[in-house]
Write a structure and sequence with these properties.
Blueprint lengths: L7 H7 L12 H5 L1 H13 L4 E3 L7 H6 L4 H21 L4 E6 L2 H5 L13 H17 L4 E7 L2 H14 L3 E5 L1 E2 L2 E2 L5 H5 L1
Helix pairs in contact: 3-5, 5-7, 7-8
């Protein structure tokens, strides 16, 4: 049995941080990476085997839109894995899962809950490929693709993940037996 950590945003809010806004928890990669490390440490102390990075909502375009340089934005995305890795090394046997949220999380308009962003597969590929490549450079133990709302985005991600070669867990955001984009979950899982 593998025990996953809990929600990063809830834990950071409990520590007094406001994680509202377009960058969500990723904002603290810039402002207070030590707080993210403290949450990873607390989850390990509670028995978690895996630390999920603060990269769910993080992307170079998102950081750039928030006023950061391309170089610094790249550093922040990579930092998400390094922070978790440093804490995991304090507790041998613990794993680091690089979190990859949906394109809609970057949009920060609630569309991660409905999918169907009105963009092509190539736009999704151009968004996800560099982010995955940057996360991979920091040697996470696995990739955690989280709360994908529709099949089209999942297909793009699966193709990209095949090239990475790391273990992956993949989760959909669902409403009953359908994706949030109202597609049959059975089709999505296939």
């Amino acid at each position: 049995m593998t025990i996953l950590d809990g929600g990063l945003s809830n834990a950071l809010e409990a520590r007094g941080h406001d994680v509202s806004g377009a960058l969500w928890t990723a904002r603290l990669l810039d402002e207070s990476p030590a707080e993210i490390a403290a949450v990873h440490r607390a989850y390990f102390a509670a028995g978690a085997d895996v630390a999920t990075t603060a990269s769910y909502q993080a992307s170079v375009p998102g950081f750039v839109e928030a006023g950061m340089s391309q170089t610094y934005a790249t550093e922040l995305l990579r930092r998400s894995v390094r922070v978790a890795r440093e804490v995991a090394e304090e507790a041998p046997g613990r794993l680091v899962a690089a979190s990859v949220g949906p394109y809609g999380a970057y949009l920060a308009d609630g569309s991660e809950y409905r999918g169907r962003y009105g963009v092509s597969a190539s736009v999704l590929r151009d968004f996800h490929a560099p982010r995955l490549a940057l996360l991979e450079t920091e040697d996470p133990d696995l990739i955690a693709v989280e709360t994908i709302p529709d099949i089209e985005e999942a297909e793009v991600l699966v193709d990209l993940l095949d090239d990475i070669g790391l273990p992956v867990w993949f989760s959909y955001s669902c409403a009953g037996t359908r994706t949030r984009a109202d597609q049959p979950l059975a089709d999505a899982l296939a």
